[in-house]
Structures are given as C-alpha cells and as structure tokens.
Amino acid sequence: MSSPNENWQTTRPTICSRVSYMFNNELMSDVSFVVPVKLGEDGNKKSKMEIPAHKFVLSISSPVFFAMFFGDLADNTHSVSLPDCEYNSLLELFRFLYCEQVELNEDNALQVLYLAKKYIVPSLVEKCIEYLKQNANISTIFTVLANAEKYEEEYLAKRCWALIDRQTKEALETEDFLTIERQLLESLVVRDSLNVKEVDLFTAVDHWATKECERLNLSCDGTSKRTVLGDKIVKAIRFPLMSRDEFNGTVLGQKILNDKETSSIEEYYNSSSLVEFSQVKRDGLQLQRCGRGYEYRTPVTTHVIMHHFRRKECICFSADRDIVLHGVCMYGSINNKYTVFIEVKQNSSHGPLEATKTGEYDSIPMKDVLGFQWDSTVVHGFDILFDMPVLIKKDAWYHVRCHEEAAKVGPVIHYNQPIDEGFRYAKSPGVTITFTNHKPIEETDYEEHIAHLIFTLD
Questions:
Q1: What is the DSSP letter of 179?
Q2: Which of 32, 185, 377, 399 shows the smallest number of beta carbons within 10 Å?
Q3: Tally of CB atoms within 10 A around 426
C-alpha cells in the first residue's frame, strides 16, 4: 500500500529543503530525545516529551553529537534523556541544525544559547547573542549578564554592564536583581561607575539579602542578612557618602552593621575622622559627546509648506579605541516634535545590526540637552539613547542610519554642511573618532542632522 508521503522527495528540489522536511519527523528517525516540558500556566508541573531525530544530520553539525553517535565511545542507544533542557529549547536547536532557522523569544533565548554552547554550534551562538543584544532590557538585564559571564561572552557582558551603569537605580528596582548570585552582587557594589545614591544602593542590597534569607529559610534579621551578604559586599557600601539622616533612617534599623562599624560611622559624622568604608564618590557614567568637528554657523531657517517632512542621513565612523555607544544627539527645530528611527550596523549598511531605536522626541534648546551653550546662537535638538548600549570595537567601521519625520508644521533649521570627499577627525578625551559620510539614497539636497555621538570609554 502506498504511503501518502512516498513522493515527498520530488516536491523538494534542494538538499536543504529535503533535510528541512525531516525536522521533528519520525520518518527514518534513528534516535529520539526525551526532555522535560512545562505544562500549565504556572509552569511548575512538568512532564516529558520525545523529539525524533537523525544521527547523521545532528552529527554533521555538532562535534558533540558526532562523538556521541560515531566516536570511539559512541552509544548505540535509540533514546537519549536530557534532563538539563526543556522541550521547546531543544526543538529550536534541532530546527537550526535541520533548517538553518531558529525561533527565539524571551522565554527560550538563554536556554538555546546554553544548548548551542553545550553542543558547540557557534553559528547558533551568534544568533542567540544577536537576539539578546537587540532584545535585552532593563527588566531582564541581570539574567542576561549572569549568562553572558557564565558563557564567557565578554562582548555581551560589557554591554549589560554599560546599561546597568547608565540606569542603575532602575536596574536595582527590578525583580531580576533580587535573584542574582552573590558573586554578581559583589561585582556590582564595587563599581565606581554606578549611577545611584548610596542610600538607594544599600536599600537594594538589603532587599536582596531579605530575599536570600527567605530562600534559605533563615530569619530576616540583621545577623542573618550580614551572613548572606558577607563582609565584601557590606564593606563596599560607601556609608560616609550618605547624609546622617539617610544613615539613621535607612541603615541603623536594619542592624546589618555591627556595633563597631556603627560607632565608626557616627564618629565620622561628628568629626570627619577616617573610617574603614570608602569615602570616594561614585562618579556615575561619564557620558562623552563627539561631533564631526564643525564650526557651527548661524542657522538657516526655511519654512515648511507640507504637513510633514522627512529627512534621512547615514554617517560612518570609527574609533581608535574601544568605546561604548549609548546613543546620538539630533538637531531639531524650534518647538517641534519628531518621530525618529535609528539603526547601527557594523562594517557597512548591510552589516550585522547592532542596535535600533524608534521613538517620539521633543526638540529643546541644546543648552538644556548639553548643560551648556556653544555661543549666542540658540540651537535645538534632542538625545536618543539606545535601550542596549553598543560596544564599538577599535578600528572597526560602523554606520548610523536615521530616518526622521516631523510631527507638525514648523521651521526647519539646518546647522552643518555635508562632509566633502575624505574623512573628518574629531578628538574627545581619551579617543579620536574618524567620520565619513554616506549620502542617503534618493536624497539630492540634504544637511547633516546627527549632532553628536553619545558614548563612554570602554
């Protein structure tokens, strides 16, 4: 009797399409993987499911699978139990090995990264890292950071730390923070670049200690909190930077400090005597700005007849050392609102996507953006900060492309003329940035609207 699928090969002309057909298919399968699967909305009840697979397909894509099925110590079993992963994540690993596609989301990306590392599939690792770069946000940043450090993904870890430095208070208020390991907390509290008041940092650490005591079934008193925190974390809190009222109102009642430490802080407030806690102020994230080195000319104002106008720009730049790009500053016009789309790509406009940002922005005087004014000219603009900072590698070229649309009628003010042939060098403390320009497609008359790159030194 003929099988309904007996001619499936004839409808799939390429080897890729035929291999894809075998994904999650029992046809000719010679091994199955038994993995846990979460059931129910609470995600706690677990069962097990099988995924059929083909040893040949897995082995030509992963040295680990090759060793498992065809190495000197190969196991000829037809069923493999994998308790360290879940059904949906393993299914995505196999989808990539069979189809060169992967469906990542916030629930499976880290688990798929783990499997890609475990089975040595570097191309899938890159896919996962790319997804995390584009989709990590402040609410999940500590989980992403912990996994980036666990898997030694230094590039991703640096970007996570840059976001934590920039938005420290917001990061410390997330549920994600309360679940981090103590080792990561130790790395956090010693950073000089945190952008947070010391009393708020202590409050967050105290909340973490409370959750840790609950997890370990300990009483949530000062002694237990001190035990789970350890001296290294407590000593890293810079209590002398707090006001006396902050210290008395927030710290004393928690009884995390011992009597000697408390007396030392009180003596410091009374006489500024030396204490064992650091008095060095955390300097926060030192954002730098670097433009293309123009002498700003008197703005030329033109009035818009249309209800909307659109403008595009693409600049290309390179730095002579690693920096972290946090965003860009855009020129605007007086009392206007803009809808802006920004994207950053490496190497070329067709290179890998590093960051995107879309939003609506009000144009305000540049002196309010920068904290100072260049001259008597009133220049308007606005900052656009990426959700996830971008690590700019030394001597690599990056493209920043923007598409900008005004939300209402108003005067358009242009400040810079386009770069002519060649390069423009701009120096900022600790780094030299080289700019060149790429004229937007289908644009015959345009000005430069990206005023500055906003960055920190790596």
A1: G
A2: 377
A3: 17
Q: Which residues, at least 6 apart from 272, have a Cβ–Cβ distance to it below 8 Å?
A: none
271-311 pLDDT tens trace = 888 788 999 999 877 888 888 754 333 333 333 323 334 56
Query: Which tens digit of pLDDT belongs to each residue from 136-151?
Result: 889 999 999 999 999 9
Q: Which residues contact 418 (CB under 8 A, 6 or more apart)?
A: 437, 439, 446, 447, 448
Q: Any idea which residue has 């994904």 for tokens? A: 23
Are 450 and 400 within 8 A, CB to CB? Answer: yes
- What domains lie within the chain, and their CATH numbers? 15-135 (3.30.710.10), 153-271 (1.25.40), 288-457 (2.60.120.820)
Query: Could you tell me where the DSSP H helices lie in 403-451?
Result: none
Q: For 260, how many CA atoms within 13 A lie in the half-sphere containing its CB? A: 4
Q: What's the pLDDT band for 7 if we cut at 50, 70, 90?
A: confident
Token duo for residue 458? 């790596």
Number of Cα atoms under 13 Å in the Cβ half of residue 416: 18
Strand order in the sheet with 79-81: 45-53, 31-39, 79-81
pTM of the model: 0.79
What is the 3 state secondary structure string of 111-165?
HHHHHHHHCCCHHHHHHHHHHHHHHCCCCCHHHHHHHHHHCCCHHHHHHHHHHHH
- Alpha-carbon distance 15 to 60, whole Å? 14
Stated as kind and residue range, the H or E segment containing 51 is strand 45-53
Give dist(CA 175, CA 167) in Å, integer: 15
Q: Are 367 and 375 in contact, with CB atoms under 8 Å apart?
A: no
Provide CB contacts within 8 A for 165, sequence distance 6+.
191, 193, 194, 195, 284, 285, 456
